[in-house]
């Protein structure tokens, strides 16, 4: 039988290198745990808020979408009846089409306005940049309700500033509020005005990060201002452009407060977007279950748009 060796004697015979090799995995494990736990602790509060105010209400809304819940009493299960009703609801289709038209108009206008303002603010030939920066940033400082009231005063049919000027010049009052198309145009202008400030700041940061060496090399080759903007600036800020387009699209599809303040989706329900339709159905007609089904259809549309834009952007990058 082999003679047993005391553990203390064995440890005493270990070389320093062997001892260090035994301690190293332990230190690396502690460091690994620290790098793993720190991000988890930092995002835990956001994760808790996300679960509490987004995931949990979404789960409840998904459950209500399969019921005929009216906001009071029980919630009888009706299966897919609400979704089948949506397929035959002309008001839902009209609101969806109006939402797509509104978004298709607001996104390109916002992109052009934001990028133009950013180019003016970073141009070395511009004057009065501090004042212009404050003016461009004002829409972001006021609430959408107040912004909507301002635009309602400007384009009011009976008391608006624009009609006052037109009548003073001998013209006839324009039906800004009673004509559905004109009313939608006013909302598009107001939404573009309100979305320009934040996107402008993103473009300013992106343009300032473009290396000046590119412009200097282009100048030596005889490139003009438009050629530099088209072949240097636009490709360099492509990631920012993608973010601006994506966020503006998602925000436009969910616009509510501004439209409610400008014309409340009028005249009548002509300019009701999906959000107005969902609010009216759920809280004024007390059809919570049906409105929940419409909300999930809107969420699916937003997810499809976001995923499609991400796929297109990745293909362009590749």
From TrEMBL:
Entry keywords, A to Z: Cell membrane, Membrane, Transmembrane, Transmembrane helix, Transport
Membrane topology designation: Multi-pass membrane protein
Any Pfam family the entry gives: BPD_transp_1
Transmembrane segments: 35-59, 100-122, 134-154, 184-207, 288-312
Region annotation Disordered: where it falls in the sequence: 1-27
Coiled coil ranges: none
InterPro entries for this protein: ABC_transporter_permease (IPR051393), MetI-like (IPR000515), MetI-like_sf (IPR035906)
Recorded GO CC terms: plasma membrane
Name of the protein in question: Carbohydrate ABC transporter membrane protein 1 (CUT1 family)
Organism: Nonomuraea polychroma
Source organism phylogeny: Bacteria, Bacillati, Actinomycetota, Actinomycetes, Streptosporangiales
């Amino acid at each position: 039988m082999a003679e047993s060796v005391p553990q203390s004697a064995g440890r005493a015979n270990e070389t320093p290198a062997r001892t260090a090799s035994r301690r190293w995995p332990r230190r690396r494990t502690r460091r690994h745990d620290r790098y793993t736990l720190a991000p988890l602790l930092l995002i835990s509060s956001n994760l808790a808020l996300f679960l509490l105010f987004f995931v949990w209400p979404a789960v409840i809304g998904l459950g209500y979408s399969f019921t005929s819940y009216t906001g009071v009493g029980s919630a009888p299960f009706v299966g897919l009846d609400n979704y089948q009703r949506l397929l035959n609801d002309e008001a839902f289709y009209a609101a969806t089409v109006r939402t797509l038209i509104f978004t298709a108009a607001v996104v390109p206008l916002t992109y052009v306005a934001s990028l133009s303002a950013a180019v003016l603010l970073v141009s070395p030939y511009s004057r009065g940049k501090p004042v212009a920066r404050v003016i461009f940033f004002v829409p972001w400082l006021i609430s959408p309700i107040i912004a909507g009231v301002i635009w309602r005063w400007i384009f009011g049919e009976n008391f608006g500033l624009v009609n006052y000027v037109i009548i003073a010049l001998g013209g006839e009052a324009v039906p800004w509020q009673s004509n559905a198309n004109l009313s939608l145009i006013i909302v598009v202008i107001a939404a573009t005005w309100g979305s320009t400030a934040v996107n402008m700041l993103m473009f300013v940061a992106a343009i300032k990060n473009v290396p000046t060496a590119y412009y200097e090399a282009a100048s030596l080759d005889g490139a003009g201002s438009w050629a530099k903007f088209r072949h240097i600036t636009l490709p360099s800020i492509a990631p920012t452009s993608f973010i601006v387009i994506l966020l503006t699209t998602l925000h436009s599809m969910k616009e509510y407060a501004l439209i409610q303040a400008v014309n409340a989706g009028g005249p009548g329900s002509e300019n009701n977007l999906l959000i107005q339709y969902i609010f009216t159905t759920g809280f004024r007609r007390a059809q919570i279950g049906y409105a929940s089904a419409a909300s999930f259809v809107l969420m699916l549309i937003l997810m499809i748009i976001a995923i499609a834009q991400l796929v297109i952007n990745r293909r362009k990058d590749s």
